Amino acid sequence: MVPGKGFRLENLGFRPAWLSPQYTSAELRWSRRCCYDGQLDGDWELTHAMSLSRLPLSYCTNVHPGRSLAEVVAGLDSYTVPVSESYGQPLAAGLWLAAPVIAELTADVRGPRRLAGQLAERGLVCYTLNAFPYGDFHGERVKEQVYLPDWAAPERLDYTLACAGVLAQLLPEGVDGSISTVPLGFKHLEQPDGFFGQAIDSLLQWAVEGRRRFEETGSRVRLAIEPEPLCLLETTDETLAFFGELFEEADRRGVLDIAREYLGVCYDVCHQSVEFEDVSGSIRRLDEAGIRLNKIHITCAIELDDPANNLEGRERLADFVEPRYLHQTTARTSDGNVLRFIDLDRDLAESPPAEWLEAETWRVHFHVPVDAESLGPLGTTRADLRRALVTVATHLDYPPHLEVETYTWEVLPGSGRPDLVNGLTGELNATAALLGELSGSGPGSVSDRVP
User: Fold this and answer.
1) pTM
2) CA 264 to chain centre
3) What is the pLDDT along the chain (451 residues), one digit of tens a residue?
4) CATH number for domain 24-299+381-439, candidates 3.20.20.150, 3.30.70.270, 3.30.70.920, 2.60.40.1120
């Protein structure tokens, strides 16, 4: 399928990245050796010479409802299978399994294996879960509730342990798994005394259980803590500081090797772009500190340049105000300071305070389609996405899991957006082209142009 055929992103003001000349000749080359009953006998291999995943590209199913097991399976049939057919390349389902779904699956010892069979029947594999949203991620108002329960609450540990037990039974043979989770908690919600100590204790319990599971079953599942704007872990500095304390405590308990092996981060490129971080430097710093990047969320944020003179852009930005998800907003001033606002609203967009109006650039935590370089008068942070993937490909000595995670298709403004299947297919095609370019598999390779 030609990306974009059958729908018109320009109705939304999108300029898809796959229209750019550098992506037209890039080619993703997969070698399908064998897939039988949901097991990878051999592997699906991305031809590459660098640290890019050899697994099928994944997209996160939190983009469609999954509040019950029946709804999860219905989502596979309504969206994932048609996307796989349109995409025409191997595809993994990055499942979001909310706490009620996990409870359904574990109520019967055969539940996870049945789900594995249902995936196999549809020609799908699963190697990663999104265990960030604990409950309903498609209600009328999610906002800050998505960070609850936090990592000081027993419910978060119990749920994430159960997720690992389920994923261990979904994994293709010989493939390690990953689970993304909340960045401990949200700064604007109250935390109990001793919060960080409780969180560290829970995380180390999770890691020790992960090692025990691996020794008993041979299935390795790693945890990926996902820094996010205005959360307890939002910046790279905060993440490095926390993992330093985590590893110190692990060393005191004699489980440092286990903590380093089973605990790491989910690097959501959109989130660190909203922080105005140098994503290449950020990834290198995490790696140099011995913190595994277990998962990369392939994501882009909204960018507004020169807000004082871009009234059209601010008016367009106001259209992205919506009641379901939290859209943390930042602005970088001329002296490099970063301003922060909890949630985008119309007043900020239309009548910003003077210091926001005078800022150089705004960025908004609103996951926009990763094949969009612009949104009418607004930009996106797709350039950061490319820089992040180049760094992953050339500086890590292991391949993190790669997952497209644009969960906001349903709340994008305007009536001209493509239906979900076409929208996801466009994202996957653009990502495949970019990965092909980065892998050195065709013209435009970055093998000799490492930043």
Assistant:
1) 0.89
2) 14
3) 333 333 334 444 544 443 343 332 222 223 333 332 333 333 334 333 357 888 999 999 999 999 999 999 999 999 999 999 999 999 999 999 999 999 999 999 999 999 999 999 999 999 999 999 999 999 999 999 999 999 999 999 999 999 999 999 999 999 999 999 999 999 999 999 999 999 999 999 999 999 999 999 999 999 999 999 999 999 999 999 999 999 999 999 999 999 999 999 999 999 999 999 999 999 999 999 999 999 999 999 999 999 999 999 999 999 999 999 999 999 999 999 999 999 999 999 999 999 999 999 999 999 999 999 999 999 999 999 999 999 999 999 999 999 999 999 999 998 778 899 999 999 999 999 999 998 765 444 444 343 3
4) 3.20.20.150
Q: Quickly tell me which residue has 């109006």 as its tokens.
A: 357
- CB of 12 within 8 A of CB of 414? yes
Look up residue 365 and give its two tokens: 């935590």
CB pairs under 8 A, 24+ apart, for 167-170? 167/126, 167/127, 167/128, 167/129, 167/219, 167/221, 168/213, 168/217, 168/219, 168/221, 169/112, 169/113, 169/116, 169/219, 170/95, 170/112, 170/115, 170/116, 170/119, 170/126, 170/127
User: What would the two tokens of residue 279 be?
Assistant: 């994503």
